[in-house]
Amino acid sequence: QVQLVESGGGLVQAGGSLRLACAASRRTFSNNAMGWFRQNPGKEREFVAAITRSGGTYYTDSVKGRFTISRDNAKNTVYLQMNTLKPEDTAVYYCAARATSSSAWYGTTVRDYNYWGQGTQVTVSS
Q1: Contact between 29 and 17 (Cβ < 8 Å)
Q2: Residue 95's closest CA among 28, 41, 27, 45?
Q3: What is the pLDDT of residues 19-28, one digit of tens each?
Q4: CA dist 62 → 21, 79, 80, 98 (Å)
Q5: DSSP string, 66-118
Q6: Residue 15 burial (CB < 10 Å; 0-12/13-18/19+)?
Q7: Is the pLDDT of residue 94 over 90?
Q8: Which three-class secondary structure state does DSSP give residue 48?
Q9: Cα dihedral angle (104, 109, 115, 117), rounded to 10 degrees?
């Protein structure tokens, strides 16, 4: 069992920045691929970014060049640095984890992950 706790959400003006963090309870955090998703009311949860065990990163097109996912295995934490925020980035952001034996695996759908955090609200005002 892995518990994930997100933090760092809040209210920011368009063009501003936020850094989300997701702390994992598991000491085998380094064996997990990690992902960030976001969701608005009435909409499906959508993929934002993923990072493999070996540090490979992947992004949805709408955040490329603005968001950066990273991980610190010593702190059992994954981060999402969000720059040049836009009102359309407003959502509840969730981190997700999946243990994998592959150093190169990453997932881009909700079904790919089996552990989820409770979410943190990000609101970008225009």
Answers
A1: no
A2: 45
A3: 999 999 977 7
A4: 20, 18, 15, 24
A5: TEEEEEEGGGTEEEEEE-S--GGG-EEEEEEEEE-S-SS----SGGG-SEE--
A6: exposed
A7: yes
A8: strand
A9: 110
Q: Which two tokens stand for residue 28?
A: 């085998």
From its phi and psi, is residue 89 left (phi > 0), alpha (psi between -120 and 50) or beta? Answer: alpha
Comparing C-alpha atoms, which of 6, 15, 99, 76 is closest to residue 48?
A: 6
Residue 56: closest CA among 110, 108, 91: 108
- Condensed to tens digits (0 to 9), the pLDDT of residues 57-89 reads 999 999 999 999 999 999 999 999 999 999 999
Mean pLDDT across 22-44: 93
- Give the burial string for 26-38 (b: 16+ CB within 10 Å, else e): beebeebbbbbbb
pLDDT of residue 79: 98
CA angle, corner 41, sides to 40 and 44, nearest 5? Answer: 65
Comparing CA positions, the residue from 54, 14, 12, 8 lying closest to residue 30 is: 54
